[in-house]
Amino acid sequence: MGMDGVGTKLKLALETGIHETVGIDLVAMSVNDIVTFGAKPEGFGDYFGCNRIDVDLAEKGIFHCFFIS
Length: 69
Fold this sequence. Notes:
This protein is an all-alpha fold. It has one domain. 55% of the residues lie in helices and 0% in strands. It is built from three helices and no strands. Helix 2 crosses helix 3 (55-67). The model has no long low-confidence stretch (mean pLDDT 75).
């Protein structure tokens, strides 16, 4: 199973106000880790962790990750 975070990307998103690519980046980097090792994916786990949520910002990142191709 591949897992990754969006640390620097999230910081840049907060500074620029562009959040639409954060979710895509999270999935892409996890897939990249799996492919790099030549592993066969057995599952994919993801989460949206935060200490408080701004629904509008969360929607921008999550919606674009799963519904925009």
